[in-house]
Amino acid sequence: MATLTITQRVDSIVKEVLRVDPAKIIPSSRFKEDLGADSLDLVTLIMALEEEFKGPISDDEAANLATIGDAVNFIEKKTGFTAL
Amino acid sequence: MSPTRVFVTGIGVAAPMAIGTDPFWRACLDGAAAVGPIPAHWLDYHHPSSTLWAPLPEFDFLQYNVNRIERMQIDMATVLGLCACKQAIDNAGFFIRAKDDKKNTFSVDGLTASRCGVFVGTGMAGIASFAFNQAFHCFSPIKERLGVGSPAEPLLRMPARFNPFAVSQIMPNATAAAIGIKYSLTGPNNTFANACAAGTVAIGNGFRAIRSGRCDLAITGGAEYLADEFGGVFRGFDLAKTLVRDCGIPEKANRPFDKNRSGFLFAEGGAAMLILESKEHADSRGAVPIAEVAAFAESFDAYSMMALDPGAGPIKAMIRDALDEAGLTPAHIDYVNAHATGTQINDEIEARVIDEIFGKKPSVNATKSLVGHAIGASGAIESAVTALSIRDQAVHACKNLDDPVRDLNFVTSPGQREIRAALKNSFAFGGHNAALVFVRP
Description:
CATH superfamily of chain A: ACP-like
Radius of gyration of chain B: 21 Å
Strand content of chain B: 15-25%
Mean pLDDT of chain B: 97
Distance between the termini of chain B: 19 Å
Number of domains of chain A: 1
CATH topology of chain B: Peroxisomal Thiolase, Chain A, domain 1
CATH topology of chain A: Non-ribosomal Peptide Synthetase Peptidyl Carrier Protein, Chain A
Mean pLDDT of chain A: 91
Oligomer: heterodimer
CATH architecture of chain A: Orthogonal Bundle
Shape of chain A: globular
Structural class of chain B: alpha/beta
Largest interface: A-B, 14 and 11 residues
CATH superfamily of chain B: Thiolase/Chalcone synthase
Number of strands of chain A: 0
Largest sheet of chain A: none
Distance between the termini of chain A: 13 Å
Number of strands of chain B: 18
Radius of gyration of chain A: 12 Å
Number of helices of chain B: 14
CATH class of chain A: Mainly Alpha
Shape of chain B: globular
CATH class of chain B: Alpha Beta
Order of helices and strands of chain A: HHHH
Low-confidence stretches of chain A: none
Largest sheet of chain B: 11 strands, mixed
Low-confidence stretches of chain B: none
CATH architecture of chain B: 3-Layer(aba) Sandwich
């Protein structure tokens, strides 16, 4: 089985938590405005990403993640995360 | 006009012996008790006198309408409650229809949502989540100060984060709320925290809500999860000298009503849900009743937080009230599903009360001899057993009852019995007593 990329894994979590049309899962999609996430959805999303990548995301870090692309970039750069 | 009759039309069970009503009931009749050593890592914190518990089997919560994301947000007691609830709704023959994909909620065909209530009992649902979140809260600064490689590090067990859903994980009403949300039921939604009698009290209140005309249907039962990461709940019961102490032969340790009993077997957790339905509602959809609930009575000892009143006056009064409401006399009761924890004082008093009121006629058994004690879920699990005993006209045996505390008609081998009416007793820490009468419909 091919290893999933970080992008694929983030996309999968976004789909699982927000249950949005897969066509909307693109890097530029904003969680709130484009994907309809409310504050509880955002908290859940962060929690699910922490679980998936086995590392903490602080409140300040989470506040800077507005789009799917932001989340992917953040995880790629963050040390200590399970990137593979 | 006489009050409506109330039928049990569906049952779901998630208990140490099995997840699922059929395998659970089969295990009861087979005497396949659950017992095993307590988690080894609990001994890092404390060495209790008791070393055994009744562990839950592994199970796939996805099958019971709980998804992976929800699992991160709810306590295991609520997972167990939702598991038993899904089974009960299916067992009652209802069709569950998907409602909101993102929220993972459903509606149930054929129900008027505002006429359906949820009544759930628990002793301390949420305690495991409380302990684990609190561990993160207290231990993370300690871990930081100690630095990597400290010998204390293995003791600082904590989750990866303080769960943002901690409050709704921990609150005792979470299970009842989760059931109401999951199946879109907007009638009364209540939680009863009467310790070991909570499940019985919850079923009784659901029964009354239907009898009074407020509800057509009630999802009733109990849910509990007692295995905090550190074994602290176990330690509390152990220090109170309530748990089995003769643990040398694990399969013989749990022995309610036996002269050599030494305490109760702590259950990791459990849940049971019973669908109660007015006769008219059940008839209108052609549901086949499993059993009928004929009475609910309760009393309070006003005596001790931890021990039964040896005079048992309030318990006897309660049983007489239950029989009166059911329109029965003691001679009508064919079966008593006893509270029967296996503690010295409790079993002694209960056996005497049964003897005084019913004599040696009714079959008497102790479901806790098989399941262990799941506190707030126990009355619900045992009510499920009582209803199934009526449906199948069969009783399970008292496990390990070799030398009975009193000469009663204890069930020593499982099998067929004529059961027209049965009594389910529950007694709780605090002094709460509750009883249900189930009859053959």
